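Dear colleagues,

As part of the handover before I leave the project, I'm documenting each prediction I ran so the next person doesn't have to rerun anything. This entry is a single chain, and its sequence is reproduced below.
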Amino acid sequence: MLPFHLCVERAQITESSCGISVSVMTKQPKTTFFVRARSIAFYGLSGVCAVPFLPLLPGLVLPAGAVFFVTDVYLRLQLFLLRVVCGIDYEVLGRENLPEGPCLIASQHESAWETLYFQVLLGRPVMFAKKEVFGYPIFGFLSRKLGHIPVDRAGSVDAVREGFRTGREAVQNGRKLLIFPTGTRRQGAEQGNAVQSGVGVLYQLIGQPVVPVMVNSGACWPASSLMKFPGKITVRILPQIPAGLDRREFLERVSDELNPND
């Protein structure tokens, strides 16, 4: 069985018409001996750190609060390992723009880094994942307990509607909902693909403000590689887009925010 962190990383490659995420090839930095060695060390130490938590999870009926706590501790351990082993640090700017209560978070998507660590950095948002993930050992258990939403990869209209309804229920229950509006993992200048129209439907259905988020994780954690490259990942939380806008106006606003160089 793969270590927990590898199961998580590989499980984040999703594909659906509601625009969540699919893997794409991006230009990678040069893989040196030291990058390779540090990456291997990160995976090995992440696996070791996961061992004490594994007996707590499968087959047990744990309260959601306990699962959130265990997941938060493990992900923060990984962030520490990324910094001391791989030389990858991070900063979060604009925290004042993220409300305490429910909202829709619309983020750029460059790598699996944000699908993992936004869990602890942006207030435990609910995320979409392909339904097969919920059958995986350990990760499926965690996904259900954390409230993440299964999506049918066939992308039928009914499946998308059901996912949107579940997302609305999560927001009504006080959770934040994280989406990747451009629907692909792209790095830097490769951003710029259009915001998917289904995001506008979700925006109107939920009726909450939208918080755009910029992230440049792809240079350190490329979507198409297991290597980890040193650097600093910056997460920029931008001012809110208010609820109640016309769908077309909203799509233009969120596209402008996430593609500022267009």
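The longest strand covers residues 231-237. The helical segments are 4-11, 33-50, 64-86, 112-121, 139-145, 157-172, 198-206, 247-258.

All the best with the project,
I.
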